[in-house]
Amino acid sequence: MTQISVIIPTYNRGQFAVEAINSILAQTYTDYEIIVVDDGSTDDTKEKMKAFGNQIRYIYQANKGPSAARNTGIQQANGTYLAFCDSDDRFLPTKLEKQMHFIKKNPNCCFLYTWYYNVNEKGVITKLRKPFTCNTKEQLQYFLFARRFTIRTSTVLVHKKCFDQVGSFNENYWYSQDWDMWLRLAASYQGYCLEEPLSEYWLHGENRSSLRVKIHHPEIIENTLKRYGWTGEQIATLEKLYGKNRNE
User: Fold this and answer.
1) CB 107 within 8 A of CB 128
2) What is the 3-state secondary structure (H, E, C) of 90-159?
């Protein structure tokens, strides 16, 4: 069985997708497959993907949104572990190798994320992002809920069995679906942080604007409070326990 399935959802980002794939093909770890899910692109994405031949599995579907594209990748994955690389992000060469090494040293780890770089449109690193290392599942739950840090989708490595437990990405969410998923994973699994930047998050006009979209946040917050069974008093207690510091 393949160890890792790398899932790349894409929509009208042909050249970005090429660069994302190239960053995966440059990995020092080699036991992986690449699944590109084209969510109804109308640009030249399909033609650009042909150049990779059997190095990738290319799946085209009608436009249903990023959650649906990721879910298609999950359903088609053969890997024990799943990694996600948004088509406008990139993996650094040792990402998968170092994550698998971490998991071998921490066999209870099913949900692993890393630090990452912000990169601007010119390809210049503008910031090192350092998500927290949380010592308990409760701490991770609270820090995610309070938005003390962001887990970037292109940093994670998740055991496929986790999605059997928590379900798929919510296909009604075209924004913030990753935040919703990490909150759901944190309900069942302790998240681990590999304290090294292993991915690049490329900021450009389209995803900069999407950062401001909070349309689904009230629903995600309500669902999370129900899932965790938290009251206002419990949240206040967690605030006192974990403080207001950020380390990003």
Assistant:
1) no
2) EECCCHHHHHHHHHHHCCCCCEEEEEEEEECCCCCEEEEECCCCCCCHHHHHHHHHCCCCCCCHHHCEEE
Residue 214 has pLDDT above 90, yes or no: no
Tokens coding 187: 């309900």
Both structure tokens of 136: 């308990």
Domains of the chain are 4-242 (3.90.550.10)
What is the pairing mode between strands 81-84 and 157-159? antiparallel
Average pLDDT over residues 8-22: 96
The pair of three-digit structure tokens given for residue 157, joined into one six-digit string: 């490595």
Between the alpha carbon of residue 58 and those of residues 42, 45, 76, 85, 246, the distances in Å are 15, 10, 11, 14, 39
Residue 199 DSSP class: E
- AA letter at 25: L
Q: Report residue 40 CA to chain centroid gap.
A: 21
Q: What is the pLDDT of residues 183-199, one digit of tens each?
A: 999 999 999 999 999 99
CB 96 within 8 A of CB 158: no
Q: For residue 227, with 0-12 CB atoms within 10 Å meaning exposed, 13-18 middle and 19 or more buried, which class applies? A: middle
Specify the pLDDT at position 195. Answer: 98
Q: Give residue 215's pLDDT.
A: 76
What's the rounded Cα separation, in Å, for the pair 190 and 11? 32
Helices and strands: H and E segment counts in the chain: 10, 9
Please give the C-alpha separations between residue 207 and each of 78, 118, 120, 169, 227, in angstroms, as whole numbers.
29, 12, 11, 19, 29
